[in-house]
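Researcher: I'm comparing several assemblies side by side, and this is the next one on my list. It has 922 residues spread over two chains. Same procedure as the others: predict the full complex and return the structure.
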Amino acid sequence: MTVGVCNAVRELEEVTGRKLLDERGRLIHPQNGATGTDIYVSTSSAGGGLQMLVMGVVKSMTAESAERAALGAGAIVMDTICSNDRRLPYQQIARIRQLRPDMILLAGGVDGGTVSHVAKLAELVAAARPTPRLGLGFRLPLVYAGNRLAMSEVNAILADCVDIHPVANVRPVLESENLGPARDAIHDLFMEHVMAQAPGYDKLKTWAHIPIMPTPGAVGKLVETVARDRGISVLGVDIGGATTDVFSVFQGQFNRTVSANLGMSYSVGNVLTSAGFSNVARWMTTNLPDHDVRNRIKNKIIRPTTIPHLLEDLIIEQALAREALRLSLEQHAAFATSLKGVQRRRTIAEAFAQSGSGETLVNMMELDLIIGSGGVLSHAPRREQAALMMIDAFLPLGVTQLAVDSIFMMPHLGVLSERAPEAAMQVFWRDCLVPLGAVVAPAGRARIGRILLECTIRRKGDGRPETVTLTGGTLVRVPLGEGEEAEITIKPARGVNVGAGSGKPVTRSVTGGKVGMIFDGRGRPIQFDPDPVRRRAKLAEWARAIGAMD
Amino acid sequence: MAHAYTPGLRVAERAHIRKRRMLPIRGNVLVARGARVSAKDIVARTDLPGNVQLVNIAHNLGIEPADVPSKMRVELHKPIRKGDLLAENIGLFGLFRSSVYAPSDGTIESVSKVTGQALLRELPIPLEVTAYISGEVTEVIEDEGVEITTEGTFIQGIIGIGGEKLGTIHVLAKSPEDTLQPDAIDESCRGKVIVGGARAPLQTYLRAADIGAVGLVLGSFDDSDLGSILGYDLGIAITGGEDLTTTLILTEGFGELAMARKTFDLLGSLHGQAASINGATQIRAGVIRPEIIVSRHQTGERAEVTASTETAVGARVRIIRQPHFGSIATIRALPPEPVVIESGATVRVMTVELPDGTLHTLPRANVELIEE
């Protein structure tokens, strides 16, 4: 592990001209003039990251809270086992035995509630006698974050087969969660047990000035910090080869999900299977036979490191990326909800709206910023393609800023924000993010050719207003350079909503970027022409309108 | 000179092959270091813990969980048979008797007075590990397994389905570009590892399975045909656990791709020889590729694979993505500067020469070195 770190640091030395390693290959600390560094931070996804099994009593209550705690700590949740998951006990036991996780998080019951349900879950673990994935020489760690009254019983059942770490209940009462202690315990155990199996880890641990964090946990921390500092709603997505991570902060609440088999190489075949061929094909401007497209996609899963050389292959990959992102957001929205099972007093308006507990927090009209990360977005041949992929997949509403992560710096800034939050934020906004611009999109279906809105743009430092008219079925791009700011006043037509309600005007400040401003009049959801020739022509027209293709 | 690291699939006529044959849990190793084994020999054996059943005694007897231990009629960890009385509750004056009987053979592992459940573990499941390849036992890992070493031919495929099989190589195709039709397969293919050429339709695979062929090796196959065999669409390349009569191994990929000439010729030279094959594939960290192994039992001569995985001018490569997918080419230049390719991406490239003498610029990521 330290060999890789030293190689990377040497490259940094070459680029910066600053001496960072001493003669013995150790980091120079603290800095002294033109040598050394004040702080070294590190994240790790060694060994495929932290893989956890989560258990709770009721699927939509304690099990969901436990899952949130595990995901927030940066884990991949391999399975969630609960009393009402419709599996028989022997099936649950077989599953625990088969999974071989790095760690188990066991929750269940509110404090002072019933003990027997949690004890039954503990019995499942005892029956399965699970072994850890890495390192056969130690006991599997189990974080117990359930009803504190059940602790002694859990201990009696599990003491001789797992290493129990009790923490405060993730759901002490139905009305609130307390995820912090479980998350912290998971981080600590990740360091002690999982990471300890990686060669060189002990040495690396002595170098790091802040505890090493699981990579997705660090990204989540940064997203949370950005949202809190600016008082905005943020959606962050990292689309990798095997998985897609989605992070969000809506109404001040952080959520993270991992779509374990939605990625662009190892699991790209699963994107095709999950989305369905027609959903992938609807984004393609090329006319290749279906079986040829299928075979090309499957060849990518067996040769995952290859890259699209031909334009038609790039079109296929970007079509798959749209669907992977769309499905990941769907899964995220289903998970990022207000607490379920909570009794609350409702107003008459809420009663009529049939709203209750457990509703998704993901509100695209409320969303201020989308950050895209991962090769297909960060390294798209044109930034316009990245912008269009995110718009097509996420279907933002109202006014939303778009950006991509330049070189996947977010995890490191997440760790740095623990020690130097201001420095982390400055680097984040100046160097990490590549601003693409802003997208303006009305909600609801759009009739082709109908005027949807008029927008007056006043660029900062330039008094002359500029007017844009958006009609149904079109995309319009207005240049607004990187760092340029403008105030926009949107006057929607009758029945059209851009955030303030049907037909009501909205005034917002926007910041430009590599693409500028995009006005999206294609409606929500986007309407596709059933005729394939006309559909492909329309797709090409939209892509050309914003410069995503010639 | 510019270099790049581009590993390829191994296709080696003579290789030093080592295979670890491990038990999933501790057990008994049945062979000693230095012993010669044949592929079918059993080298290790263990008993997997039996399945468990949770028997809700409290619920079935209609009593409180705390009372369950006193109502049990069997001892912990003692063998019981299906139908044995597990627990009994006798009501007032011996009336209203209720009983719980063992749902299967096994032992009672624990009884909880909190949940009122008894944990019944069924009988252990015996598991045996075979040698899989013929060779010499070169290492014994106490209670866990062995390492078997042999000299022989080692051919990796790109993807396969189906597990370990043993059979004789039976080459049916005349050239690596051939399509293997179902009528080429007859009774003589039973128990054999059939070698085709470029591809075969689904019917050929089904015919091979009907006849009882243990393997089918092809250059390529159609993805939807593979889905028909599996019964689902392959989303992630993790295979090997399928219960198939005929293991399928593809050497090139999906679509219509001729088998690499070298692979085809090598398989041709092995016609009639006993082979160990495995379709198991895992394309993630710790890559596993399907394989065809023919042990030759040669001793005294170690045939280490000497191929380099460093790509340099003059090296031969296989192109593994469109355009020219499947073609063999020779590297003519490795320009250090990134170049804009047709898709618009700026990437590191190489210039290669195809057999027809034409020169092409390709992303370095889209070739693999032919290990010779």
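Model: For your comparison table: Chain B touches chain A through 51 residues (CB under 8 Å).
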